[in-house]
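Hi everyone, sorry if this is the wrong subforum. Our group has a chain we'd like a structural model of before ordering constructs, and none of us has done structure prediction before. Sequence below.
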Amino acid sequence: MSLSHEDVVRIIQILDASHFDELSLEAEGVKLNIRRNGAGETTAQVSEKPVLPVAAPSVVKASTAGEAGLIDIRAPMLGVFYGAPKPGAAPFVSEGSQVDKDTVIGIIEVMKLMNSVSARVQGIVVETLVNDGEMVEYDQVLARVRPA
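Answer:
Right subforum, don't worry. Here is the predicted structure as tokens:
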């Protein structure tokens, strides 16, 4: 049995939406233990080398809130968002930053794996909506960009 990144993310989402506090799964050499640590926070351990991507594409959609013509950059997965490459470092982007489709706007950590999130649009960051170290949900708006 091999678990893909999407499988693990979906299992975590199901646990978060349930009233259970712990899940253990063991099959064909794969052992997955997920346990909530308090109010809605979830941690996971996998004891096999799952196939997980190093970088994940962000989801880009036209904004439905705020100023017309802005593009929402959305989280491609749930996890902890980091807006800088390391603690104390300057953020990847801030309001007023020029971005193009390959510009990294942040990192989402899932199970100790860091996933780069790129802007995937060319323009200027008008608004950043998440703080460093904040838990983000799949499809949550991370930033808004005015396309160039």
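For your construct planning: The chain has a mean pLDDT of 78. Helices lie at 5-17.
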